[in-house]
Amino acid sequence: MKHLYENHLGGWYVLDRYEEPEYCEQCGDCDRYLGSFEDNKEIAIELFKRNATSEGIEEFTGLKIHPELVEGDA
C-alpha cells in the first residue's frame, strides 16, 4: 500500500506505511492524510478528483491523466 499525504506547504508525498501527520513547529499547521492506494494509477485518479493539475499529476505519478476516461470514476 502507498499512503498519500498533502504537504501543508504544498505538493504531495507517499509513504510505505501510515504515519500520523505531525504539526509544524513554525506555523502550527500539519500535513493532511489523503488515504491509502494500491498503485500510482489510483493516486493519479485521487489527485484528479482533488482538482490537481494534469501537469502536477504527471510529475508526481509519472502518469498522464485523461479526464474523459476518469470523469465517470469521479
Q: How would you characterize the overall build of this protein?
A:
With 74 residues, the protein is α+β, with helices and mostly antiparallel strands. It has helices at residues 40-49, 54-61, 67-70; strands at 2-6, 12-15, 32-37. It has a three-stranded antiparallel β-sheet with strand order 2-1-3, with helices on one face. Helix 1 packs antiparallel against helix 2 (54-61).
Q: What's the gist of this structure?
A:
By secondary structure, this protein is of the alpha+beta class. It has three helices and three strands, in the order E-E-E-H-H-H. Strands 2-1-3 form a three-stranded antiparallel beta sheet, with helices on one face.
